[in-house]
């Protein structure tokens, strides 16, 4: 844990410059009738969950090059998330992946969560790998498997995930299935879908009534001919059959190139089925790069839909869970997560600048150019002083990565955990 006095000392020499930039931004936006304090309050309240599997190096099926100081246990993962949250005040929860993160000492973990003011966001099941001593193999699928024993095993694993989550106060189960086929003819599309729907129904029934099941889709990989849940339409149809506690999860990297993700977000909001996000950056596919590193305009347009939906009384979508799903082999994962959160907050801040009434007028008048320019103007506004102010107001660092480096945190972690420590992950 970082002493808050250290962050205070770190911020002091940066305050003068920050205040200058903040005042300028406040004046500029004030002239447009925007309430900057309200925007900052919203940024302070906005929280993005950190996945346990992003705290170490990974995200490659080739070589893994450990950076050192990676968390070796769930307790150490919580420590890392607590640290991130101290630095930026925007990451107060962690997503777990079972069996990598099976809680051992539940009482001790509960206490740690309380001390670090963290919560467990979601529990992710893993039926894409075989575990030691597991009787049935997932080589040919899990919830969709042709053999009942494999399906049953996968169902029980998901229920077990819910039980682990319950012990720690989580309320969300995220299901991502690797099920699918690699060659034409390998799998009967309709039957595989139905087996999956039936398996999900068994899990859904075992879930407590205040839990949400998030169903993730992905068009390819590890199966390259067909995935059982390849697209939002399939996720949506499964949710419709399951009930109101089932919601679609949009992972930004799980789309074919050039997919209009913001429109998918708008559609799901319209249907009240947008359950959550896995934020990441994508150049080609499921690249799991830093959020906002590749397509910042797209990220802004996604937030534009979210803000629009939140302000529209006709939209009855339940709360959306925000998570990061990334994995790195070249960057320090903690620095990457700080960057990702900053880009997410920036995109959100920009979406809050959009004059929705004016946009609606332009749309009604089919003024294509003005409507587009309105969005571009918000996107091109420098909102960094607002994000920094939000960090500051939540007791964090004006420059989280700067503070992380100044405090030599990675070096400290290497001293504590060793140069070769490898965290469990993808
Ligand atoms: C695999 O594509 C994946 O990246 C999915 O996005 C899941 O959310 C994540 O792994 C963790 O299982
Ligand atoms: Mn994901
Ligand atoms: Mn993925």
UniProtKB/TrEMBL annotation:
<dbReference type="Pfam" id="PF01261">
    <property type="entry name" value="AP_endonuc_2"/>
</dbReference>
<keyword id="KW-0464">Manganese</keyword>
<dbReference type="InterPro" id="IPR013022">
    <property type="entry name" value="Xyl_isomerase-like_TIM-brl"/>
</dbReference>
<protein>
    <submittedName>
        <fullName>Sugar isomerase</fullName>
    </submittedName>
</protein>
<dbReference type="GO" id="GO:0016853">
    <property type="term" value="F:isomerase activity"/>
</dbReference>
<dbReference type="InterPro" id="IPR050337">
    <property type="entry name" value="L-rhamnose_isomerase"/>
</dbReference>
<dbReference type="GO" id="GO:0046872">
    <property type="term" value="F:metal ion binding"/>
</dbReference>
<keyword id="KW-0479">Metal-binding</keyword>
<feature type="domain" description="Xylose isomerase-like TIM barrel">
    <location>
        <begin position="103"/>
        <end position="288"/>
    </location>
</feature>
<keyword id="KW-0413">Isomerase</keyword>
<dbReference type="InterPro" id="IPR036237">
    <property type="entry name" value="Xyl_isomerase-like_sf"/>
</dbReference>
């Amino acid at each position: 844990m970082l002493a808050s006095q250290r962050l205070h000392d770190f911020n002091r020499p940066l305050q003068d410059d920050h205040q200058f930039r903040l005042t300028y931004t406040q004046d500029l936006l004030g002239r447009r009738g925007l309430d900057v304090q309200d925007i900052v309050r919203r940024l302070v309240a906005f929280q993005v969950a950190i996945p346990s599997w992003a705290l170490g190096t990974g995200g490659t099926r080739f070589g893994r090059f450990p950076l050192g100081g990676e968390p070796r246990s769930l307790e150490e993962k919580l420590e890392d998330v607590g640290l991130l949250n101290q630095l930026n005040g925007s990451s107060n929860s962690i997503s777990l992946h079972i069996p990598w993160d099976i809680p051992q000492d539940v009482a001790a973990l509960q206490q740690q969560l309380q001390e670090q003011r963290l919560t467990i966001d979601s529990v992710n099941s893993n039926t894409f790998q075989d575990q030691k001593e597991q009787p049935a193999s997932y080589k040919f699928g899990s919830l969709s498997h042709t053999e009942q024993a494999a399906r049953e095993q996968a169902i029980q694993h998901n229920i077990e995930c819910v039980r682990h989550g319950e012990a720690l106060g989580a309320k969300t189960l995220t299901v991502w299935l690797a099920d699918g086929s690699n060659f034409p003819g390998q799998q009967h599309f309709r039957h595989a879908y139905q087996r999956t729907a039936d398996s999900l129904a068994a899990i859904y029934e075992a879930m407590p009534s205040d839990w949400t099941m998030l169903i993730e889709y992905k068009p390819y990989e590890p199966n390259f001919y067909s995935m059982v849940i390849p697209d939002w339409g399939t996720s949506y149809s499964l949710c419709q059959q399951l009930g109101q506690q089932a919601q679609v999860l949009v992972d930004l990297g799980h789309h074919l190139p050039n997919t209009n993700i913001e429109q998918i977000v708008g559609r799901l909001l319209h249907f009240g089925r947008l359950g959550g996000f896995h934020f990441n950056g994508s150049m080609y596919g499921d690249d799991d790069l830093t959020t906002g590193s590749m397509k910042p305009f797209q990220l802004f347009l996604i937030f534009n839909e979210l803000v629009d939906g939140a302000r529209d009384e006709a939209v009855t979508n339940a709360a959306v869970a925000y998570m990061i799903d990334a994995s790195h082999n070249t960057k320090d994962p903690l620095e990457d997560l700080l960057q990702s959160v900053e880009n997410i907050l920036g995109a959100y801040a920009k979406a809050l600048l959009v004059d929705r009434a004016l946009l609606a007028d332009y749309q009604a008048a089919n003024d294509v150019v003005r409507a587009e320019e309105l969005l571009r103007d918000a996107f091109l506004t420098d909102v960094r002083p607002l994000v920094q102010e939000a960090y500051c107001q939540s007791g964090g660092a004006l420059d989280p990565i700067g503070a992380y480096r100044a405090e030599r945190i990675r070096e400290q972690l290497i001293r504590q955990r060793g140069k070769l420590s490898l965290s469990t992950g993808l």
